[in-house]
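Fold sample X.
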Amino acid sequence: MPTTQLIRILTLGGISFLTVLIFIPIFDRFLHKHKLGKQIRTSESAPVFAQFHQKKEGTPTMGGVIIWGTVLFLALLFFILNHFFDGFFKYLNFVDRAQTYLPLAALFFAAIIGLIDDLLGILKIGPKGGGLKISHKLIIYTIISAIGAWWFYFKLEWTTLYVPFIGNVQIDGWYFPFFMFVIIASAFSANETDGLDGLLGGVSLFAFGSLTVVAFALHRYDLAAFSSVLIGSLLAFLWFNIYPARFFMGDTGSMSLGITLGVMAMLTNTAFLLPFFAFILVLETISVIIQLISKKFFKKKVFLSTPIHHHFEARGWPESQVTMRFWIISAVFCALGLIIFFLARYL
């Protein structure tokens, strides 16, 4: 059974990868034809960012559509075919009420909101022509997280958190705000990390790869299959998103990936391992928080620019070097997270 499921999971990832490779040239032509390009922030509001990224002005954005679009397309396709044909399509269907309804819904709704934000930015609508304000995004994250928390707490009756080497800890009503915090933090962090070509896509690959292993170990095979499909589409997307990027992920990609990452961590009850699986996301957010606090209370900067990947750019690191080194750090911490998971589970 586990071997059969492993083959199924890998097959779905491969199908997703090939699907993106087939359709991405069409999508690429569409983005360039309609000039759906990204607007770069002005030098007054972000001087370091503008200095290094002004040349990217006009590069097509909303590339994240190909990621979540492929996942939803394959989920719907195999779900429908499963109702008409037995055997192979039942084998490929990964839509399951207990395991994948919530991450699929979170992926979709977050992606649509991010898509709207991207379109506002392209049309130069919003603060300084940059789409939604951060405060507006936080409100949206809060609403989505509250819906998810309600589902987990009242519908699924989840009230415990798994703490490695300790076990399940009963937190009752505190589960609701904890769930919201995880989702909001993961969404915000993903958005902050998406600032260099291939950065978020690469670290997300490691994070979702780790959660796929966790889901498989917990025998949640449909959830692992869902994550594998997401990984397949991400991997093909990265082929075109690494430096110099053919197009950007956009908020429709970062928002959907961040929220889905948080939902998967809660579904596998590995929220306390998420800082390992998403270490770079945590690092990026902490750098922003430290910078804001230092500027407000001490009137000086700790970093040359934030999020922290821009700090290293300002220190002279080439963009591709920052990305690759962050990928390496992400891989190391994901491996540490998996080691802790298996040690805590089997010792």
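Fold sample Y, listed below.
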Amino acid sequence: MPKSSSLLIEDAIVVTMDPRRRVLEGASILVKGDRIAEVRRPGDRGKEPVDRRISAKGMALIPGLIDTHIHLAQSLLRGCADDLSLVEWLRQRVWPIQGCFTEEDGRASAELSMLEMVKSGTTSFVGVDVVGRYGFDGIAESVAKAGMRGALAKTVMDSPGYGMKGSIMPAGMVEEKDACIREAKSMIRKWNAKGGLVTTWLAPRSLGGCSEELYREVSELAEERGTRVTMHLAEVREDVQYARRNFGTTPFEFIRQVGLAGPRSLFAHMVWLTEKDVAGVAKTKANVAHCPSSNLKLGSGIPKVPELLEAGANVGLGCDGAPCNNSYDMIREMKLAAVIQKGRLLDPLAMAAATVLEMATLKGARALGLESEVGSIEVGKKADLVLIDMRKPHLTPFQDVVSNVVYSAMGGDVDTVMVDGRLLLRGGKALTLDEERIVEGAQQRQDELISKSEVKT
């Protein structure tokens, strides 16, 4: 939609996620340019003519979903690494295949990831561990063209190890420290200065992949350049053992000591936290990306999400990767995030649907440093919006639209997606990504990558 034009989304069930958490039935949202200009009550026609109208009768209008942890390079690995523990999953399948990527593969995988995200209601994401061989610039250009709001996190490393497993990363995935830093600085200069939808973050590898000195250097670089940092932390029991043996403390406490725990930090998984760690996360205002499907499929454990929230920590949601999820559908992820905590704590009140929707919207926005711009439907905020068709057998009838969205809906129910006032999906059809080309090419690329890697799937 041109920046000067206006669009009225009419007669929707609007889940605002505003400070009062209002749900407005039969309301309309006026979008002008890239922002929400009005939230109209039923019967309010407004004073200005509009250029275009969308009827949203029978649909829920929610803020765009925000995926705080996704591997763009892994959609081409879907189904290639099932039923393995994390270290063997990485060593035997994921890293050997990714180590054979070309820049064309990196771009194709990113496009497939974005296509799935858009079609299931995700508008913003943190794309983690972008290594040089994937072609950072090409991926960034693809994100900008697709019209998504994407934070691309450049991998930084100085060791091919993982935890107590030394030198297990294949040569194709190893990057030299100085080269990592040079590329990170270059991409920060190029993309963060644009003020657009694409930004560059830093992604130091998990414990065993970076020296203590490099973690400190990343902290200083992030401070110097005003950028954000994300990394995998306390994902599996082995991370705790490594931190205890090498640093005499917990993974989170070590990362806090090297200066990486703060409001601009986003830590993925955080399964193995002590009570003191939970309090520390809240105190430092560090952000957490909770990835329930990945944690369960890899047998990593179930993080203390209700405890983190109770302590005041900010926790968003993430789908992680296609080999460990195997989907990039945030709506499905919301249901799992709610029900696993009820089972873990033997308490049906442990995680409410409304809380999980907050994690997927407002709390995700805060994790990206965008809480003043996205995450709720309020006048003046960016027009990142999603329409879900509630006229489906599995969504009928309903008394509480938030409950139905979290517990009954799925990504395929998404009808319309908008980012920055631009339509990316309408009537379930992608408008900025060539779905036929992307899907048709994916199988061939996967077959070629498996052949080159000589991985036995």
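Sample Y note: The chain has two domains: 6-63+381-430, 65-367.
Also: The longest strand covers residues 6-15.
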